[in-house]
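Please predict the structure of the following assembly.
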Amino acid sequence: MMQTRTAAIAFKNLTRDFPIGQRGFKLRALEAINLEIPPRGIFGLLGPNGSGKSTAIKLILGLLKPSDGCCEVFGEPAGSLTSRKRIGYLPENPRFHNFLTGRELVRYFAVLSGMGKEAIREQTEKVINQVGMEQGADRKVKTYSKGMLQRIGLAQALVHDPDILVLDEPLSGLDPQGTSEVMDLLKAFGDKGKLIVICSHLLTRIEEVCDRVAILYKGKLVVEGTLDVLLGGSRDTKLLKVSGEGVDPAGLAELLATKGLKLEGVQDARRPLDEWFLQMINQGEGKAG
Amino acid sequence: MRKVLSIACLTFQEAVRAKFFGLLLAMSLVLVLLAGFFQNFDFGGAGIKFIVDFGFAAVVLLGGLLTLVMTAQGVYNELENRTAAAILSKPVYRWQYLLGKAIGVQALLLVFCAATGCILAGLLGWEEHLQAMENTGAKLATPVRQSEVFLFMGIQWLKFSVITTLTLAVTCLSQSSLYAMFVSFLAVLACQLQYLAAELYKGVESKAGLAVAWFLKTAVPNFQAYNLGDQLVISTTALPEGILADLLAYSTVWYFVFLGLAVMFFSGREV
C-alpha cells in the first residue's frame, strides 16, 4: 500500500448501495473498499461485468455519491470542483453531439473546463495533434469511425491537461487496428508521468500497458498491486523462451557466456493475465460465497 | 456564466435540428395559415377574431407540447448517451448544467413564438387589408393591433419558460423520458386548472377547505394568469395597468422555484 499523502486517488472504506424496488432492499455495488492509487503510471481497474468497476469510476468523478466511506482525489473530496479540474474522463461508448466537428467538440469541452480563450485555442490544437486527429478535426463527429470517436473522446478528456485520465472501457467495440491506435496513445500518455486509470475487462490488451492493477469482484477488492509482483517476473530481466529436447540451463549458461551474458536464473514463463485473473476470480468466489 | 451559455448554445443547436421541433413548427405555421381558410370572412371583425383565437390556441397547445418534449428529451438523451457524464466530469456545477439546458430550450421556444407570431401578424394584416378593401376603404370598427400578437407571444414564452423548469424538475426525478413527459403534462394541467380548484375549496368555507385553497394558491402556479389573448389585438378593453410587470415577476419566481427543485433532485441523482 502507498502512503496516503502520495495517493492520487484514495478509497476509504468506500461503500455504495443501490436501492432495489420499494421495500428498502439494497444491492451493494461496492463494499468497504480501501485502495490507494499512486499519482503516476497506468492503473487497471479490472473485474467481470457487475463487479463494481463503473460504480467506482463514477464515485471518483463525483457522478455518484458514496453510501458510506469516502473517495478522495489528491486529498480533495471526489466530485468537488477542485478535484474535477484535475481529472479527464472518457466514458464507455460515448455518443457526443454529432452535428459538431471534432474541433468544435474539443473546444466545447475546453470551455466547460473553465479555460481562457487563448488557452482554449492552443490546447485544442495541441490535443488534436496528440491524438492524431489533424486530418479529421473539421469533419462532423457523425462521420467518425469508432476509433476516431475514441480518439476525439480522448482529446476532450485531455484538453484541460488533467493529472488523472479516467477511461471507462476504452477498447470497447474497437477493431484490432482501432485497439492498437488507442493502446499506442495510452502508452504515450503513460510515459508523461501522469496517472491513467483504465477500467476494462479486455485483460490481455490491458496487461500490455498497466503497471498496477486492482481486481474487483462482486463489489469487493480481491487483490491490488503491480503486475510484476502479482504475475511474477520483472521488466528489468528478460525472459528467454527456449524450446527443444533436453533444455539444459548449464549448457545455456555456457552459451550465453560466450556472448558476454550471464544467466541470472531459470524460471517458468509469466502466466498470462487472463489466466491469473480467472484464478483470482475463483478465489474471490470462494471469499464472497 | 460562459459555461452555462455554452451548454445553452449546444442545447439550442441540438434541439433546433430535432425533427420533432421542425414538425411542430410546421404544424403551427400551417394551422395559423389555415385559420384564414376555415372562416367565412363576411362578418367583419368576427373573421379576424377567429384567426386570432385559432392562432393563439395553436401556439398555446403546440408550444406547450414542444416545451414538454424538448426539455425531457434534451436531458434524457444526454444521460443515456453518457454525454452528461462527460460534461459533469468537467468542473461544471449541476445547477450550471440544468440552467444551461433550460436556457437552450427557452431559446428554441423564442424561435417558435417569433416565427408563429410573424406569420400570424402577417396574416392578420393581410385580412385587415382585404376587409378594408371590401368595405371600400373604410376602417374596421375594431382595428387590428399586430404588435400585440408579439406581446401575446412574449407572455406565452414566459409561461413556456416556467413549464421548462417544471419539466426539468420532474425529469430529474423520473426514470424515463416518457414518464417525465406524462407527469409534466399532468402538472401543467393542474397549473391550468389551479384557479378552479382554489375557488372550489374556497367555497367549502371549512378550515380544511380554506387550507386546501391556500395550498393550491401558494404551491401551484396559476397558468390562467397568462390567458390574456382576449384582451389583446382586437379587444376594445386595455390590459390592466402593471399586469405585464406582475406577470414577469410571477414567472421569474416560479421559474427559479422549479429550477431550484430540479437542482435539488438532480444533485443526488446518478449520472
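The radius of gyration of chain A is 22 Å. The first strand of chain A starts at residue 9 and ends at 20.
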